[in-house]
Amino acid sequence: MTLDAPLLAPPSAPARGLARYAGLAAQWRDAITSGRWAPGSAVAAEQRLAEQHSAALGTVRQALALLAAEGLIERRHGHGTFVASAIVGAPMLRFFRFGDGAQAPNSAVPQSVVLQRRVVKASAAVARALSLSQPQDVLRLDRLRLLAGAPRLLERIWLRLPECAALLQHPSADWGDLLYPALARLCGVHVHRAQDDIQFAELSKPDASHLGLPAGHPCALVQRRAFDLSGQAVELRHTRGDARAFRYTVEIR
Amino acid sequence: MTLDAPLLAPPSAPARGLARYAGLAAQWRDAITSGRWAPGSAVAAEQRLAEQHSAALGTVRQALALLAAEGLIERRHGHGTFVASAIVGAPMLRFFRFGDGAQAPNSAVPQSVVLQRRVVKASAAVARALSLSQPQDVLRLDRLRLLAGAPRLLERIWLRLPECAALLQHPSADWGDLLYPALARLCGVHVHRAQDDIQFAELSKPDASHLGLPAGHPCALVQRRAFDLSGQAVELRHTRGDARAFRYTVEIR
DNA sequence: AAGTGGTCTAGACCACATC
DNA sequence: ATGTGGTCTAGACCACTTG
Known about the structure:
With 253 residues, chain A is α+β, with helices and mostly antiparallel strands. Chain A is built from six helices and ten strands. Chain A has helices at residues 20-33, 46-52, 57-69, 124-129, 179-187, 205-211, and strands at 42-43, 73-76, 80-83, 111-121, 137-147, 150-160, 191-202, 218-228, 233-242, 248-252.
């Protein structure tokens, strides 16, 4: 038996090696990373998206599932679909276990003290980490993190300018103990992804004195690059803490 | 408008808070972890599974997608669906970067030399790690891993008995440089998941001499627990290497 | 050519959250 | 009560892999 006409109409735009759902996802991914869809805002209902794009519900759902897996949207049953907000942070403390009473992994947010805040010329290494094409100014912070009053982590932070310039116009006491929520609130910079590189080192004399440890004491050094929704690197951070307190668990497969 | 009869028949087994696809996945998950479906073997085609269980193709696919995400099956377009085999290993070397010529992350499999192989009574810590209810015998291995002839990692390994007893009946030279493939081939134990716990420590005098380092030298200590398909812990491994060569990258979100 | 997984449709019904 | 995402069906067609 042959058919004179296909039972189903072919897709209006003939897929160029790209599945329909992948195309929709790409389109919406761009809307998010470009900021046209604001972080935290609601996305149109599946049904409505399906009508708008003349696609079946299942196809729309497949596209949304892809974006959800990428962490760009969050779906809430019976409520709606929302553009991802900035991560509150990937606590540096998860790399350490300081035996402060509780033996459970520390859940408290460490107190933050900003030691220094100034604009400096980016070194070659910093420029590379922040994808700066030319030598350019960056915002440099030194920050001490304390747990139960005891200094535990020393952070050296470089932030992209002019994106993060608004931090300069507020006293650091107003930032709160977490940097990323402050970046989102004050600068409109939403940190969405980060990459931590861990190695072992020894404390310089000045670094050691901040942490109340002897010079040359072994430390863990965590080098982080943080990226905004568009994938642009916005922060480089070097965090140092006592090597004896370092503890990290990796799940394989 | 009311309907005298539902357009679609209700599921034969009324879901007890469990989605149909989740039930199918649970059933097949059990078949895999119990060994009824052998690692590497082919699973029946989607169409056939759908007929067998009187379910729609989409539902079967949803169940299989779940198992694929868990790493229990592997799907190959145009070929078939296969039960996952044992992982070849989560190379310990991924935690280290030894500057042997190439600066790229070492991809070569390090040579293995078994220093010691014997049956010992499990200590309390080992018994806990391997979920042994009573004090029981375990297979203890000491192994040195070499890169370009240079000793780089020292491993202390405890294996569950009697599961891994077959290793005792073959000369260690026949095992090859990777333990997990040997466990699968000789013992029928398929390592499917592992958990690595990282910390910094100092080398004891005997350990240091094996690695050609001075006693007290800082080292990275990776404590691994490896699990078979059923989730049973089968291996505990302590790996030590020069802390200065330690380097690890974590992706957040 | 035959068999497999991957995409897409069109629709019904269910479960959850909010007003 | 209404609207949202989640489940399920039944079927057609596409793309890939192998004999």
